[in-house]
Amino acid sequence: MSAIKLQINTKERRYPIFIGSGLITKLSKLLNSCSIKFSKCLLVIDSKVPKTLINKILKSLPKKQTIIHIFNANELNKNQSSVNKILTILLKKNFHRNDCLISIGGGITGDVSGFASSIFKRGIKFINIPTTLLAQVDSSIGGKTGINSIHGKNLIGSFYQPNLVISDINFLKTLPKREIICGYGEILKHSLIANKKFFLFLNKNANKILNLKSPFIEKSIHRSCLIKKRIIEIDEKEKNLRKILNFGHTFAHAYEATLQYSKKLNHGEAVILGIMNASKFSLKNNLLSNDEFKLIKNHLIQFKLLIKLKKKISPNKLNHIVSFMTKDKKNTTKKINLILLKKIGQPILNLNFDNKKLYSFLKKELID
C-alpha cells in the first residue's frame, strides 16, 4: 500500500502527515517534498525503539550535523527535568530557529520533544515520527505538547504544530500486543465521538486491526487521523469543539495520576476504561440509549479490551480519583466537566457534574 498523505491546515501552520510502510527509508525525499531544510538536527529517541530502525533513519536523513539524545520515555520522566536536558543540548550545540528537532518515539517522547521545541528560542522546526499506534492516531496530530506535574497529567504545556508527521506502520510490528490495544483505544474513541459507520467498521474488523493486517490497520489509522484533522482545523486551541477529543479522558487521567503513572495501567488502557465509564455515565444520565450502550460494551468485551478495575485501583483511592478529576483542564467551575454521548457519533459538550455524583457513580463501578 502506497503512502497516504493528509494535509493539516491550522492558523499556526500547514503540515502533512504521511502514513505507510517503509517511510523511514525515504526521509530525505519526504523532507525535500515538504521543502524542509536545516543545518543541524537533534534526534530525541525513545530508548525502546529498536536499533535496526534507528539505523535506517540515520541512513535516510540528509547528510547534516546530527546529534542523538536517548530518552527513557515513561510518565514519570514526562517532566521539566527531561525538557531541560533537551534544551541544554540545543543551547550547547548552538542550535538556531531554522534547525530541527526530530522526535522518534511514542506519545510521551513527542509531547516532551514538542514542548521543548516550542520554547527553545520561541520555536524551532519540529518533526514527529511516532512509533506507537497510540501516537500515530492521536498525540502526533494537532500540536498539543506537555509534561506532567504532581498536580496532574499534562497540566504544563503548549500548542505547537509540527512541520511534518511521518507514521511508519513498520514500527508497529515491533510493539507488544498491549501497546497495540492502547492505540486502538484512541481509534475507538474517535469513532464514538464522530462516526458510527467507522465504529461499525471497527466492530467488524477489530481482530484484523489488532493483528496489524493490511489494509485494515492503514484504513483505521487514516480514518482516525481524518476525524482528528477535521476537529483541530475548526478548533485548534480547544476553545470548544476540540474538547470532544477528551471523551473518556477525564476518568482516564485521574486513574493514571492516582496510580502515580505506574505500569499497572498505561494511558491507552486507562482511556479504554474511561470510555466505558463515560458511556455508562451517559446511560445513567438518560443521554445514551441502552441499545447503543450495549453496542459499546459488547465491543469492548468481545475483543477483551476491558481491564478489571478492581484489580488495579484500591477502594480507598476513590477520593484521590475524584480530586484529580476536579483538576482537569476542561473544568471552568468547581464542578467536573465531562464529554458524554447522546448517540454513537454524537457527543455532548460542556456538561458539568458535582463531586458527589461522580463519587457515587465510581463507587458502584469500582467497588460494588
Give a brief rundown of this model:
46% of the residues lie in helices and 20% in strands. By secondary structure, it is α/β, with parallel strands linked by helices. Strands 1-2-9-6-5-3-4 form a 7-stranded mixed beta sheet. The chain has a two-stranded antiparallel sheet with strand order 7-8.
Number of domains: 2
Q: Examine the coordinates and then state which fold CATH places here, giving the name of the CATH topology of the largest domain.
A: Dehydroquinate synthase-like, alpha domain
CATH structural architecture of the largest domain: Up-down Bundle
Q: Percent of residues in beta strands? A: 15-25%
Within CATH, the superfamily of the largest domain carries the name Dehydroquinate synthase-like - alpha domain
Largest sheet properties: 7 strands, mixed
* Helix proportion range: 40-55%
Unreliable segments of 5+ consecutive residues: none
Strand-pairing-aware structural class: alpha/beta
Strands of the biggest beta sheet: in what spatial order? 1-2-9-6-5-3-4
What's the level 1 CATH class of the largest domain?
Answer: Mainly Alpha
Radius of gyration: 20 Å
Give the number of helices: 14
Silhouette = globular
